[in-house]
Amino acid sequence: MPRPNRPLYLDNQATTPVDPRVLAAMRPWWEENFANPHSVEHAMGRAAEEAVEAARAEIAELIGAEAREIVLTSGATEANNLAIKGAARFAAGQDSPRRRIVTLATEHKCVLESVRDLAAEGFEPVVLPVRPDGLADLAALRAALDDRTLLLSVMAVNNETGVVQDLAAIGALAKAAGALFHTDAAQAAGRIPLDVEAIGADLLSLSGHKIYGPKGIGALYVRRRPRVRLAPLFSGGGQERGLRSGTLPAPLVVGFGEAARIAAIEGPLDAGRIREQRDILFNALARAVPGLRLNGHPEQRVPGNLNLTFPGGIDAQALMRAVPELCVSTGSACSSAAVEPSYVLRALGIPEAEARATLRIGIGRFTSPADADQAAALLAGAWHTLTQAEQ
Questions:
Q1: How far from the centroid of its chain's Cα atoms is residue 149's Cα?
Q2: Which top class of enzyme applies to this chain (predicted)?
Q3: Could you read off the pLDDT of 62-117 as tens digits, one per residue?
Q4: pTM of the prediction?
Q5: What residues are annotated to the active site?
Q6: Cβ distance 232 to 243 under 8 Å?
Q7: What is the pLDDT averaged over residues 32-41?
Q8: Which domains does the chain have, with CATH numbers?
Q9: d(Cα 367, Cα 373) in Å, to the nearest integer?
């Protein structure tokens, strides 16, 4: 994708650019048929409804689900809230004795806060540590899951380290305990194969803008058989089977569906190409910066993520300021208002000083080998300059 006079974008964990094919698919639903997809009394409304349902089917296909199991939301944050709070509140309304909700310390903020918020409603939040490589400790999970557990929530791919959890094993532990299994798969969809049956997911969250689709649209998979029941987060007109009221944004839904369709077809090709660019960048940078460290499991990770700690105590914020032509980050965009170092890295046992010297680099579909070379040269040059200034 051309970037005239634009910085080199390597922050694809925060968001991805909209694929031109996705933009083309959305355009008619803004310019030509702008009808409300719920206005099925007339032809334009019915056409919009058909487009929405076709997109819903494409989203379902990406994760091996049925179209009717997909509830459209504003994004993965809403989907995560609906999954966790919706499951808990429905169970409470049924006087279920299960009050424990288990998750990991490295989850997305919206999952951690949702779990913690439920303590005020009489639930027992359990936030477990992870191994130093970022993977879940299966023995600790097994010990935490008992007949008091309502829900286990473990993200498929960590948004900072790119670590891929063993979802099938985790889902099996939840099933053995009779608990629901939810996974935030926003960073996984399109990057690794996903099948809700294979991993035993009861609830699974997705986001359009992580797979080269538009921002402002996401989805929650809600298992139909055996049926998972949720309480809605807010009241309204009863759209999305009563679980998510509000007018669906047809152009965004269509774009999400097209992005899912492309990801299902091209995901393996993307992964291979992205892995090549990642290796080019990492190997060049490691040669130029002795002592550079990769955080998270070295193999069990998505191809495009590099979470790197730079030696010498060089602050990552200073490093980014030294290369304004490069778009990288220090961690989750959703935690960017925080001044403390990444809680994800701290959960891996990384000291605060080293966490402050860590960058997240996200390589994507449109990253070229030349981009990878340029990024490595820029970062290495900036690190050497800052290191010399410190001496």
A1: 24
A2: transferase
A3: 999 999 999 999 999 999 999 999 999 999 999 999 999 999 999 999 999 999 99
A4: 0.95
A5: 334
A6: yes
A7: 95
A8: 8-17+267-390 (3.90.1150.10), 20-261 (3.40.640.10)
A9: 11
Q: Which amino acid is at 269?
A: L
Q: Which two tokens stand for residue 318?
A: 């200073």
Q: Which residue has the tokens 């918020």?
A: 117
Report d(CA 213, CA 333) in Å as an integer: 17
Three-class SS string for 69-104? Answer: HEEEECCHHHHHHHHHHHHHHHHHHCCCCCCEEEEE
User: Counting Cβ atoms within 10 Å, is residue 5 exposed (0-12), middle (13-18) or buried (19+)?
Assistant: exposed
Q: How far is CA 108 from CA 21, 77, 115, 137, in A?
A: 29, 9, 11, 18
**In the chain, where does DSSP find H-type helix?**
20-31, 43-63, 76-93, 109-117, 138-144, 167-176, 196-199, 250-288, 316-322, 343-347, 352-355, 369-390
Q: Is 210 helix (H, G, I), strand (E, B) or coil?
A: helix
Helices (H) and strands (E) in the chain, counts: 12, 12
